[in-house]
């Protein structure tokens, strides 16, 4: 059996060499921004009257997927596979297990650091899982709306 030419699969060196072209194509199709769950969440937020958000706002610590800077609200839309959803408990890939364990552990650590940094700076952080958004995006959006209503009603305004 001859050696497989894997040079066409190498891109940036961060991931192990895929065993097949199909795996390479599947992994290459994964996006980091504007994923279907993100689009669904954004649509639900707009549908309930919560427009005016920023996407991947660079000035917010951790660049949340969706943010409301004036209200200091950060929303992360976490993919169940990449961020290791506690509800789905998806299995690890069968090859390159050590790489994937390290990758997922780093992702989870980075998620915690982003959340902590935002909260330290006075932000309210919402983390919605892909499975929850797929199940009921409007419910997720309403969770944000209820928080805004609650905090807005707690503020007292002094009119002079």
Q: Could you give the order of the helices and strands?
A: HHEEEHHEH
Gross geometry: globular
CATH arch. level architecture = 3-Layer(aba) Sandwich
The number of E-state strands comes to: 4
State the end-to-end distance: 85 Å
Per the CATH scheme, the topology name is Endonuclease, Chain A
Q: CATH first level: which class?
A: Alpha Beta
Mean pLDDT: 85
Q: Please name the fourth-level CATH homologous superfamily.
A: VSR Endonuclease
Total number of domains = 1
Low-confidence stretches: 1-7
What class would the helix/strand composition place it in? alpha+beta
Residues in helices, as a percent range: 40-55%
Radius of gyration: 19 Å
Biggest sheet strand line-up: 1-2-3-4
Short description:
The protein is α+β, with helices and mostly antiparallel strands. It has helices at residues 21-28, 36-47, 80-83, 97-120, 130-154; strands at residues 54-55, 66-68, 73-78, 124-129.
Question: Would you mind describing this structure in some detail?
Answer:
The protein is α+β, with helices and mostly antiparallel strands and 160 residues long. It has a single domain (31-152), classed as Endonuclease, Chain A (3-Layer(aba) Sandwich), CATH 3.40.960. Helices cover 46% and strands 11% of the residues. The chain contains 5 helices and 4 strands, in the order ααβββααβα. The chain has a 4-stranded mixed beta sheet, sandwiched between helices. β2 and β3 (73-78) form a beta hairpin. α2 (36-47) runs parallel beside α5. The chain is globular, with a radius of gyration of 19 Å. The termini are far apart.
């Amino acid at each position: 059996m001859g050696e497989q030419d894997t040079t066409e699969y190498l891109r940036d060196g961060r991931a192990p060499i895929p065993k097949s072209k199909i795996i390479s194509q599947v992994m290459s199709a994964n996006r980091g921004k504007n994923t279907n769950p993100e689009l669904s969440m954004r649509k639900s937020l707009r549908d309930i009257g919560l427009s005016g958000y920023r996407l991947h706002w660079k000035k917010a610590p951790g660049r949340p997927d969706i943010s409301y800077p004036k209200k200091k609200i950060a929303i992360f839309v976490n993919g169940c596979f990449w961020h290791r959803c506690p509800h789905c408990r998806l299995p690890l890939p069968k090859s390159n297990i050590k790489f994937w364990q390290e990758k997922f552990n780093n992702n989870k650590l980075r998620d915690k650091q982003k959340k902590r940094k935002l909260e330290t700076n006075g932000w309210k952080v919402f983390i919605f899982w892909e499975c929850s958004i797929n199940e009921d995006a409007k419910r997720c959006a309403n969770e944000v709306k209820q928080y805004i209503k609650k905090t807005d009603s707690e503020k007292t305004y002094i009119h002079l």
